[in-house]
Amino acid sequence: MTTEDFSILLLTLRVAAISTICILPLGIAMAWLLARRKFPGRGLLETALSLPLVLPPTAVGLLLLELLRRTGPIGRVLDAAGIEVLFTWKAVAIATAVMSFPLLVRPARVAFEEVDPRLPALARSLGVSRLAAFTRVTLPLAWRGLAAGILLAFSRALGEFGATIIVAGNIPGRTQTLALAVFHRTQMGQDSAALRLVGLIVVVAFAAVWTTEWIQRRHWRMRNQS
Amino acid sequence: MIDLELNLPLTRFTLEVRTRLEGQAVAILGPSGSGKTSLLESLAGLRRGARGRIAIDDQVLLDSRRDVCLPPEERRLGYVPQDSLLFPHLTVAQNVRFGSRAVGGGEKLFDEAVAILEVEPLLPRYPATLSGGERQRVAIARAIATRPRLLLLDEPLAAVDVAHRDRILPYLLRVRSGMRIPFLYVTHNFGEAEALASEAILLRAGKIMAQGIPAEVLHPLSLAAADPAASFENVFEGRLEPISASPGSARLRLAGGGSLVVPLLHGAATGQAVYGIAPEDILLSAAPLARVSARNVFAGEVESVEHSTPDVLVRVRAANASWRALLTPEATLDLGLAPGEPVWIAVKTQAFRRLR
Prior knowledge:
Order of helices and strands of chain A: HHHHHHHHHHH
Number of strands of chain B: 21
Strand content of chain A: under 5%
Structural class of chain B: alpha+beta
Mean pLDDT of chain B: 83
Strand content of chain B: 25-35%
Distance between the termini of chain A: 47 Å
Mean pLDDT of chain A: 91
Radius of gyration of chain B: 22 Å
Strand order of the largest sheet of chain B: 7-8-9-3-10-11
Distance between the termini of chain B: 27 Å
Oligomer: heterodimer
Number of helices of chain A: 11
Number of strands of chain A: 0
Shape of chain A: globular
Helix content of chain B: 25-40%
Low-confidence stretches of chain B: none
Largest sheet of chain A: none
């Protein structure tokens, strides 16, 4: 493993982690809203949320590019604030965040639906606030599904390619993540160097999935033991 | 004192309750689906859509005309649902502590609740590993650890098998007398209602059919309107006296003057005690009984014969007490039982179960 491989891995992990952490609050709020509340436009919101799953990633990337370019509706604001996004690691994070958002919301929503709504209600009757009932009862009970959603979103972020290459390009050392580097190296005929990266990503993915499973199993055993 | 003026549309009928409850312990009786649980949930603030006014002593919990609706966390009512609803991800200790910390009660309330419900040995365990009766005890401990203004108990014994029933009733009696927390108690069991409550209301299809002291509400006319699946446990309270010839049993001297021979498993034959007997364990005879092994044989008179269940409920006045016996329709016919007719009761000592 070369230092270049290592820095590619670091960049990928860092960006995937940042994007996953950034979508957490909104993703959990959205999942809870869809699971617990009925409101007009709910179906519409659900469909819109699933779009990144069904659209070609490059199409999503292009839409993002339009939004984020200097003359675009969001880009203009960012530009005025002096924030440069396109073709930086921030663009990578935004692309992966958008692409992995539905993968967080779906399992999280199912997880919230599976929590008996009377449990947080009963918690409130014991004197705790609505927020405390959520953080002390709903959230821990939905934890398994949430963890699955976080893992899915993180994995998707690790491997994101199509949207990323459009908004962030494929700039070694700046925006080149593992997926982009594997593509780049095979294009250059450096198959063994690409395979090294593949080996790396397999190890990382395996570790992530295994850790999540392990945490869940341990949690489950503890709860069912006398 | 609870002031109730409640209107809550449900799927099949509207719950309309307008009353004032004065008792320390109020039993709510009625068939399943008569709105009992909805009433408790509205009181606890767990059900949306309730209109009207709810006040406990001087504290207004709901007044829809003045737009007052306290959130559940400010009502300070201890709700114990039928299925306990313990937090599955927390140990018993964490469950009981959940509320006591929220109300700032600290360890004192926790210790008291743990002691009264005797859940000490269960503290490190998770709800999944508890039996139905243990869960109920923990749920009651969790509720009383918040020092509620009022306990709302939704058929706390329904989810519990018969063997555990014997053990939960005494805890409730202890909560009532020891902690002086008033409670509202939903039940199917008329004997329990008599043993626990000082006041009873009978609900049917969301309306109050009868209200008063339990004995009045449990009048045959009211009963006919109530749940056919109800059980009619007989409950007797009295003072224990030793019987020198048999240390395994004792005499229970009833307030009305009669006395029963009851089993004595442990402890001394002194002080007040409460015993129960299931109505199907009572033997009736149309002729005087002589030379029978049962130690409780009394001559009595049939008060009423009610065909409200698949079996026949016969009320008998004997030994200065009221008895409820369940018979098959065939046996009732065979014995020629009718109000005013003489009848003889026989009960084995071991058929009585000590409740307190």
